[in-house]
From TrEMBL:
Key words of the record: Membrane, Transmembrane, Transmembrane helix
Transmembrane spans: 12-33, 45-68, 104-127, 139-160, 167-187, 193-217, 229-252, 258-279
InterPro entries, A to Z: MFS_trans_sf
Official protein name in the record: MFS transporter
Signal peptide interval: none
Organism listed in the record: Thermocrispum agreste
Gene3D superfamilies: MFS general substrate transporter like domains
Amino acid sequence: AVLRSAASHFPARRYTLVAALTGALGFVGNLAATMPLTLALAGFGWLPTFLTVGLATVSYVLVVQFAVREAPHEAAGRPKQVAVRQLGRQVTEAWRVPGTRLGFWVHFTTSFSPSVLSLMWGMPYLVRSQGYTETQASGLLMVLVFGSMLGGPAVGAYIGRRPEMRMPLVITYLAGSAVWWGLLLGWPGRLPLLVLVPALVWVSLGGPASMIAFALARDYNPLSRVGTATGVVNVGGFTAIAVSMWLVGVLLELTGDSFRIALLGVVALLVLGSWRVAVWWRRARAAVFQAQARGEDVPVQLRRRAWDVQIPEPREPMRDGERRLARADAR
């Protein structure tokens, strides 16, 4: 809902930065829910702490309710109700757009690695496999949070100025992730901090890179369908997170707590997602070239590359005399 509202209020060049700032604020909330909340519980007790949190939440809800509009100059009133059948049609139409499908796979491939480490398997990996204490492991995992917080606005500002660099940044991140995961899983013995910390910093950039997926959904869908397309894209990331967490757990049980083998499940999803990103990047570029050939406005002007899908040049319509000759030849 936040991204849908941002798409209505901000132009395409600023949307990615706004989306990245939104994600960074989300990480601030994550931080507030950890150490500060723990200290407040210890110092003030449960009732005062959660009463304060509840009042802050209600205040935020009131501000959003009375100060935030779905779109600029929006007329007051309740939003239109959408029938279930129409909703299914909107999802289908959004899914058919190559830009939406590309965004789905970009979000699938970039967002799950930092989530898998920060939410579930990072702590046991660092403690049981690498031999760090729980305190040291917690400090190392904070690298993922701060990397995403700082990297999000930087990436958003850059691609807001250079939208043609969105997919090259995604490809660079995926290639670098393959290298770092290879080091994490192939390094003999305990990983030194000089390897582990840069690897975690790089993995943390998956959150900022995943914001590019929402920019693709916004650019290649009409505004009335951006919310649906954003939801479709978001499903990609959460699907990858859920599958990778489950897959690592299954492999741990099968291999007797071998994280070196279990985390290959993350690499497998990274390879799958990278392949689908490459496929749909070419198809999305082909759709843009077709739109350019028809004289339509496109979000980003592209230059054809040797690896692009070859599209036949549009033929000029035949004149009346040419049509008669063609029919005569056909006889």
